[in-house]
Structures are given as structure tokens and as C-alpha cells.
């Protein structure tokens, strides 16, 4: 808890601080099943950190600095480029409803936070609310089914290659 002499960060600045705190915990870890389990155990659906990130994303969309672009029925946007303060992860957030996005590969892997909206049981690539980790060299056509979800993407060095 901060004392009354400090001003709490709001909006995009607070979101940056949340992400920096998270990336500090995962920096240098291999993007694999172990990290997937760790994230879901420590920051998964139902945890305080999951809810903080979810509320920050919902707020950012409402304020207009998240998901500010639209294409092919998907709202999206890169919030932060890979930088040292974020431990060389870039941050993107998409807003998808019952749709498959463009196929792409993850040269260095990808870490996704799945946040269903409107009480939906939405899934991302068949996964429910929580984290999904793809290792280096993987590829997919990101798909949200059974409703609407925000999905936060952490990309090491901001690397992503669209294939179509």
C-alpha cells in the first residue's frame, strides 16, 4: 500500500508497472509447459494478479489506448514495444469474439493471458481463462470460441511472423 504522499499510477502507466512486475518474474525462463503451469498456478484465473490484469485491460479498452485498431473483425494493438523495463517482452492485446485470427509463427515463443468477457466461457485455442505458453518456433491461428475474450500477448523481443 502506498502512503498518501505518492500518487498512484493510472491507465497506461499503471498497466506498464503491472506488466513489468510480471515480466520480472518470468524473465530468462524457457517458454515451455513448465512456465505455463507456473503462470497458471501463481497468476491464473481467480488470482488477484489475474483480476488486476483483467481489469487493467478492460479499463484500457474503455479509455481507448488498448485495442485501438480493427481489422478482419478483431480489435488489436501493440501497447508496448519490447524494452528493458519489460524484460524484452512486447505487449499486445486483442479483443476477439468467436473468430480465428491470422496464422502466425512465434520465433521466440509467445505467452498469452486469456480473459473471457461478459461472463462468457470463451476459450482461446481451446484453453479457458488463464495462461497459455507457446514455445519458440510454434505457430497457430489464434481462435476465440464460445464468446468474447481479451487476450494479452507477451512476445520475447516482439518477434512474430504472420504467414497469411
Report on this model:
The structure is a single chain. The chain has helices at residues 11-26, 33-43, 48-63, and strands spanning 69-71, 74-80, 89-100, 104-106, 110-116, 123-124, 130-134, 138-140, 143-156, 161-162. With 164 residues, it is α+β, with helices and mostly antiparallel strands. The strands form two sheets. Strands 1, 2, 3, 5, 6, 7 and 9 form a seven-stranded antiparallel sheet that branches. A hairpin with an 8-residue loop joins strand 2 and strand 3. The longest helix is centred in the first third of the chain and has 16 residues, at 11-26. Mean pLDDT is 93; it is low at 1-7.
Give the secondary structure arrangement, pairings included.
Blueprint: H1 11-26, H2 33-43, H3 48-63, E1 69-71, E2 74-80, E3 89-100, E4 104-106, E5 110-116, E6 123-124, E7 130-134, E8 138-140, E9 143-156, E10 161-162
Antiparallel strand pairs: 1-2, 2-3, 3-9, 4-8, 4-10, 5-7, 5-9, 6-9
